[in-house]
Amino acid sequence: MRKIIHVDMDAFYASVEQRDFPQYRGKPLVVGGRPDQRGAVAAASYEARQYGIHSAMPARIAQQRCPNLIFARPRFEVYKAVSQQIRAIFHRYTDLVEPLSLDEAYLDVTTNALEEPSALVLARAIKADIHSTTQLTASAGVSVNKFLAKMASGQNKPDGLTLILPEQAETFVAALPIERFHGIGYVTARKMRALGIATGADLRQRTEADLVQHFGKVGHFYYRVAQGQDDRPVNPNRIRKSLGAERSFSPDLTNLAEMTVALEGVAAEVISRLQEQRCRGYTLTLKVKYADYRQITRSRTFVAAIGAESPILPWAEEMLLTHLDCSQPVRLLGLTLSNLELVGEPICVQLSLEI
């Protein structure tokens, strides 16, 4: 039986800002763009969440909900540095660490450096180490698989620690609202509700074939987690599906020269992330959002993988020139590289294709 811990930092970006700037502590704070710049919320402090403010919310709506809301610009280099401190702590306990983002990770502590038999004891020690090193709190979930550990970590935020024993799994999953299931987003939850699936207990009543019919291949996953089962290993070499960056503009961009300069900045950010992750990819996607909120995406797949050393910008500019509606102002540009592989680990070759 495996022993899995899921660690999730509490309101990570916002908590770092409140740690570093005492004037922000105890006050509603969001990290992200400002309302007058058409920004969006990247993270919200727990004080801000009391007003119904959440990540991805437009900044102007967040300000309407809380007129005294504080806006802080993101400092991603600081967040990355803190994340590296946290990951170093994880590796004191086990080599089986699977980061999901800067602020969360799975740890398999079935075998661990301390030879400690209790995953709960280890989770408590990890939380204490994180706090003493970074002055930040984390919530942790402990169970026998990744799904249950992930669900457990969200039960008692902030600074929570929740254990789900094997004999508790069935009851725990049955009581979960379908929206709380990891891997079920808003659109899928709404579809499930329309089918009469409101809780884990309802999901468990469905056959695997039925779930596959309605939701495709992911239906196999839904069927298994409804039983509290998840055989996915903690993968320390997990590679992301895609890497990208995007920027919104205020005022809108109205000429091609401005757009080209802006695209250069987006490409530079993508290259920086590729260098950090030691990845390259086969498919480059351009995203353009116009002032009227109409959006297009155009992709090109290459025979050979491209990466940080590749001339990404000329290909991005070529797609922009080919597909741009020059009569419309542009409010957002984005680039994403997908079909990723780690540098030095080739995958099968694909034909060049315009999508």
Mean pLDDT across all amino acids: 90
Radius of gyration equals: 22 Å
How does the major sheet shape up?
5 strands, mixed
Share of residues in helices: 25-40%
Give the end-to-end Cα distance, rounded to a whole number of Å. Answer: 45 Å
* Low-confidence segments: 345-355
Q: Beta fraction of the residues?
A: 15-25%
Question: Your description of this structure?
Answer:
The chain is α+β, with helices and mostly antiparallel strands. It has 13 helices and 13 strands. The chain has helices at 12-20, 46-49, 59-65, 76-93, 119-134, 146-153, 169-175, 186-194, 200-204, 208-215, 218-226, 256-277, 312-323; strands spanning 4-9, 29-32, 41-44, 70-72, 97-101, 104-108, 138-143, 161-163, 242-253, 279-290, 295-307, 330-342, 353-354. It has a five-stranded mixed β-sheet. Strands 9-12-10-11-13 form a five-stranded antiparallel β-sheet, covered by helices on one side. A three-stranded mixed β-sheet has the order 3-2-4. β2 and β3 form a beta hairpin. The longest helix has 22 residues, at 256-277. It is globular. The model is unreliable at 345-355 (pLDDT under 50).
